[in-house]
Amino acid sequence: MTTEPLLRVDHLEVGFPSKAGVVQAVTDVSFEVRPGETLAVVGESGSGKSVTALTVMRLHPKSTRISGSIMFEGRDLLALDDDEVRAVRGNEIAMIFQDPMTALNPVFSVGSQIVESIRIHQKVSKQAAWNRAVELLALVGVPEPKRRAEQYPHEYSGGMRQRAMIAMAISNEPKLLIADEPTTALDVTVQAQVMDVLHDVQQATGSAMMLITHDLGLVAGSADRVQVMYASRLVETGGVDDIFYRSRNPYTRALLDSIPDLLATSARLEPIPGNPPSLLNPPSGCPFRPRCLMAIEHCAESVPELVSIGEGHASRCHRTADIEPTAEATS
Amino acid sequence: MTAPVLQVRELVTEFPIRAGVFRREVGRVQAVSDVSFDLMPVETLGVVGESGCGKTTLGRSLLRLVEPTSGSVRVGDIEVTTADRHAMKHVRSQLQMVFQDPYASLNPRIPVRDIIAEPMRIHGVDKVEAADRVADLLTRVGLLPEHGNRYPHEFSGGQRQRIGIARSLALRPRIIILDEPVSALDVSIQAQVLNLLDEIQDEFELSYVFIAHDLSVVRHTSDRVAVMYLGKVVEIGARDSIYDTPAHPYTHSLLSAVPVADPRRERSRQRIILEGDVPSPASPPPGCRFHTRCPIAQDRCRSEVPELHTVAGGQQVACHFPVEPGQTLVELTKR
């Protein structure tokens, strides 16, 4: 692909100092987001997926130790001062959080909060911004947007609040939307509605999306490319079909095998043994080694590199060569 | 024919709505509305539905953690809803519960050994025997006997859920009500706990009521499945009937909304996206409670409450116009 990436993260490291030592939440993470695409970042709790997203938004505590670079359209976000960051945040990059109730202010009407986010970044009249807010609410499928704009967040249901937050996030037509578990708090039927809205919004505005989730089903349905994180590192990256049908990484495969299937009745699940490692004292070598059925002595000696194993497909495993490519389901 | 271990008939659980300075009752929410089912020995009944459908209240009503308003719950030959303290004690030795949040359901101030032994202490099990059983139970759920000396905060979420399971087994119950037992856990840990539940079910001859919102998990664990919507069971039957030939439009929509980890399938899937939200259970719609969101609702659905009846797939469904095997709701919607 020849298009310039919108976002380019290089060798990002994020650590949180604590009394017991530095918790290394993100280790050597490099990736790109191209205009208009959806990149899913998958992993379990503590894998570093949310911290990566928050760092791109510069929403980390002051004491955080960060190195590497986050280039957004040629500017290093890590080098910007607070005012410069505020000009980008909510404008060119916007974020959708898991819990809309904590992201919306309970004492202002939904419409006025969207107006505020518009007027921070655009010089428009209050009336024009209000009209735009109503339009945005209509775009994300809030019924009776005129009336609903005057209501407060508590008068909205969970799904409607999530729509309102999406409306706010897209109010300045961001080039990049970061959605951190946008539907985890919602019921499945409402989740389907919200994912549909996100898809339509992307079609309408052409924005790229970084979708942070633990739900492999959501990834399969909406991502163009996927990166799998484990214990603060990227372990496999590739196109959505590479990850689901041609994975060459033991963790990705184990994760895919451990989820029950909706469409067929499975006799027994194949769980991943053990627990994710501590980020305070990670195991030597490959962090997945203690739980990996393929681990050999060498895996304890060094952390494997993320190595290209195909067009746009890379995996971090010492045993990549010994892993048979999956028998591809042809359909 | 073997007798069911649990018989639920026309169970109703209501909560009062209170308002004003004197907290006067101004209305009632029927969280569980006329639910009936049997649970057979070593059977798992999955109960699925979205938030507010009453599945959790149903589970709690069975144990009288919330008092049912009317109807009957029978465990063996004891009527639970009218049982006195003494009889309830016996019921609770037969009927145990595992909760969703392993952080909230274990007392942080007492060591795990005492958490697991507590039900035995209450039921007068000899101390020495109780200690033996605790060690056995810890081993059985995949922990070590010496873990008994530790406190809940020293364990991960998956391990805590194992402790909750060990506690529920302490009195050798016949039935365990599992309320979202794996939804707080990461996927890789979920499978461990699901397999554990599977193993101990055979070993201890347990029957489960498995309450969950995750339809894939329920398909994996259940023999029969009940789908709830706004307090009512809208469809109940054998697992494969429900998943392969669902008859209720709500079951169809639920199944079609669940994303599956298969990109090609996702790309070709025709999704039914329900409009609107679940109505408030305080004022459920008249007629069929699903009619406000149902893509194939007709006039009759707005006035007449559908009763559960058996359909071609073998399951029971409460719908005036059930979807037939081979039909899809997408087709019907287009007509």
Topology overview:
The complex is a heterodimer of chains A (331) and B (335).
Chain A: E1 7-18, E2 21-33, E3 38-42, H1 49-56, E4 65-72, E5 75-76, H2 82-88, E6 93-96, H3 100-103, H4 110-121, H5 126-139, H6 145-149, H7 158-169, E7 176-180, H8 188-205, E8 208-213, H9 216-222, E9 225-230, E10 233-239, H10 240-245, H11 250-258, H12 297-301, E11 306-310, E12 313-316
Parallel strand pairs in A: 3-8, 3-9, 6-7, 7-8
Antiparallel strand pairs in A: 1-2, 1-4, 4-5, 9-10, 10-12, 11-12
Chain B: E1 6-19, E2 24-39, E3 44-48, H1 55-62, E4 70-75, E5 78-79, H2 85-94, E6 95-98, H3 112-122, H4 127-140, H5 157-169, E7 175-179, H6 187-204, E8 207-212, H7 215-221, E9 224-229, E10 232-238, H8 239-244, H9 249-257, H10 263-268, H11 299-303, E11 309-310, E12 316-317, H12 329-334
Parallel strand pairs in B: 3-8, 3-9, 6-7, 7-8
Antiparallel strand pairs in B: 1-2, 1-4, 4-5, 9-10, 10-12, 11-12
Helix pairs in contact in B: 3-4, 3-5, 4-5, 5-6
Give an account of the 3D structure.
The complex is a heterodimer of chains A (331) and B (335). Chain A has helices spanning 49-56, 82-88, 100-103, 110-121, 126-139, 145-149, 158-169, 188-205, 216-222, 240-245, 250-258, 297-301, and strands at residues 7-18, 21-33, 38-42, 65-72, 75-76, 93-96, 176-180, 208-213, 225-230, 233-239, 306-310, 313-316. Chain A is α/β, with parallel strands linked by helices and 331 residues long. In chain A, helix 5 packs across helix 7. The longest helix of chain A is centred in the middle third of the chain and has 18 residues, at 188-205. The mean pLDDT of chain A is 91. Chain B is an alpha/beta fold and 335 residues long. Chain B has a domain at 246-335. Helices cover 34% and strands 22% of the residues of chain B. Chain B contains 12 helices and 12 strands. In chain B, the strands form 2 sheets. Chain B has an 8-stranded mixed beta sheet with strand order 6-7-8-3-9-10-12-11, with helices on both faces. In chain B, strand 4 (70-75) and strand 5 form a beta hairpin. Chain B starts with 5 loop residues before the first strand and ends with a helix. At the A-B interface, helix 7, helix 8, helix 9, helix 10 and helix 11 of A face helix 6, helix 7, helix 8, helix 9 and helix 10 of B.
